[in-house]
Amino acid sequence: VTEEPSEPAPPRRAPFAPIPAWAGPTTRLVHGARRPDWNAGALVPPIYQTSTFRYPAEFSESAARGGPYLYSRIDNPTVEIPTERLRQLEGAESARLFASGMGAITATVLSVVGSGDEVVTVGALYGGTTDLLADLARFGVRTRGVSSDDPTPPSELLAPATRLVLLESPSNPLMRVHDIAAWGDAADRAGAVLVVDNTFATPINQNPLALGADLVVHSATKYLGGHSDLLAGAVAGPERLVRRIDPKHALGAPLDPFAAFLLDRSLKTLALRVARQNESGRRVADALAAHPAVARVHYPGRAGPRDEAIAARQMRGRGGMVGLSLAGGAPAVDRFLRALSLVQVASSLGGVESLASVPAVTSHRNDPPAKRHALGIDDGFVRLSLGIEDPEDLVRDLTAALDAAGPASPAAPL
Ligand SMILES: Cc1ncc(COP(=O)(O)O)c(C=O)c1O
After folding, report:
1. Quick one: pLDDT band at residue 249, thresholds 50, 70, 90?
2. Would you say 214 and 207 are in contact if contact means Cβ atoms under 8 Å apart?
3. Residue 412 has pLDDT above 60, yes or no
4. Annotated catalytic residue within 69, 75, 87, 126
5. Which residue owns the Cα nearest ligand 1 atom 7?
6. Which of 138, 162, 224, 399 has the greatest number of CB atoms lying within 10 Å of its CB?
7. Which sign, positive or negative, has the C-alpha torsion 196, 182, 385, 365?
8. Which atom of ligand 1 is nearest to the CA of 221?
9. Can you tell me the distance from the alpha carbon of 48 to that of 52, in angstroms, rounded to the nearest whole number?
10. What is the pLDDT averaged over residues 366-373?
């Protein structure tokens, strides 16, 4: 009897090549997720655009766990690469990527809370997150909001039923900063989980896990993707918590291999982009504050001495998001947006092009006006996401649009 030559076992997934402990964040972004796979010598790994993988017949699914790839909802080599880059960047034990930021946030929240639990939110949140929490009331999950200005120490604001504390820092769209260390400590004592949405800061400017958060989430659609051409979400933290959020179990919303390829390409330049955006943020915030058409500037640390102290403590850079309230209200907003020539009017943020958006008609459109006003989002509010253009060009474009919007030109056509 001649024996059939048995097919060689498929290579088990290769570990990532070690990178020296002294490598800095930018070096890690470039070299931190290298694998020894030969892949025809390609410097850039290919896109494994496949839903499934071949494996020897004798491997049952359970026997193969941790071995060959099986199915792209569970695992895909292209998706693993930006996952590893982000894991290192957030200083996490484990990370997972999702099809969108809301996919990551929904899976994270559902992995923590159950019927009878309370969620505490700190300050304003992205409208989609607020909507999700409101919807969870149907399943017996209650949400209680705490104001960014509440002087009570966080440890006195949590109740026995509090399972989850959720905050953004800086927050969308008011750029308020929240004390991650204090909230992390309070959550620990109360047996709750602190989840920080780090979308606006990015891991270049702030690492919530190092400050005391249990989990960090991102809309990777924003700065991590960086070019307004993909949707993605991420969560990172200790394996014991991240395991429960795995996209293969919760919601089935893993990242697609092609989006993962784009995300990985973008992550390599994240530190450079954010450095420029930090610089533009600072310069634009100063220029806006000096303009008579602007009633208020919203920028991390500017809301008062408490915000400034927290920002100085927990952020390495303040980011490229700036809010402004135009003294002339909604009519001035129309004139301002029409007069912009470089800055594009669009929702979303974090890309290379500067964008202006109006939260009242985008992220917070589902909030009734009274609630929006109570949050501090008045009718003259415009949110800017600064891109990587020359900072002086942004200042020039925005200043010219403010000149057109300001009280000095009330007769400008609407
Ligand atoms: C702070 C923040 N978190 C989460 C999200 C949701 O992310 P995605 O749009 O990728 O689902 C957004 C989107 O705008 C956001 O601004």
Report:
1. low
2. no
3. no
4. 126
5. 101
6. 224
7. positive
8. 10
9. 10
10. 82
Nearest to 175 by CA among 324, 316, 29, 290: 324
CB 224 within 8 A of CB 270: yes
**173: burial class by Cβ within 10 Å (0-12, 13-18, 19+)?**
buried
For the Cβ of 197 lying below 6 angstroms from any atom of ligand 1, the answer is yes
Mean residue pLDDT across the chain: 91
Nearest Cα to 400, choosing from 335, 323, 325, 346?
Answer: 335
Measuring from atom 10 of ligand 1, which residue has the nearest CA? 101
HEC profile of 71-94: ECCCCCHHHHHHHHHHHHHCCCCE
Over residues 334-363, the pLDDT tens digits come to: 999 999 999 999 999 999 999 999 988 887
Q: What is the number of alpha carbons within 13 Å of residue 321 lying toward its C-beta? A: 26
Lowest-pLDDT range of 75-89, 355-369, 380-394? 355-369
Does residue 197 have an active-site annotation? yes
- Helix (H) / strand (E) element for 143: namely strand 142-146
For residue 4 the two structure tokens come to 């059939």
- For the Cβ of 216 lying below 6 angstroms from any atom of ligand 1, the answer is no
Under a CB-based contact definition with an 8 Å cutoff, are residues 121 and 167 in contact?
Answer: yes
Amino acid at 370: A
Please count the residues of the chain.
414
154 in Cβ contact with 182 (< 8 Å):
yes
Active site includes 69? no
Cis peptide before 46 (omega within 30 of 0): no
Model confidence pLDDT, tens digit, residues 99-128: 999 999 999 999 999 999 999 999 989 989
Task: Give Cα separations from 271 to 26, 29, 32, 282 (angstroms).
Answer: 6, 8, 14, 17
**DSSP code per residue over 334-363:** HHHHHH-SSSEE-S---SSS-EEE-GGGTT
Ligand 1 site, residue 198, Cβ cutoff 6 A: no
User: What is the DSSP track for 246-280?
Assistant: -TTTTTT-BPPHHHHHHHHHHHTTHHHHHHHHHHH
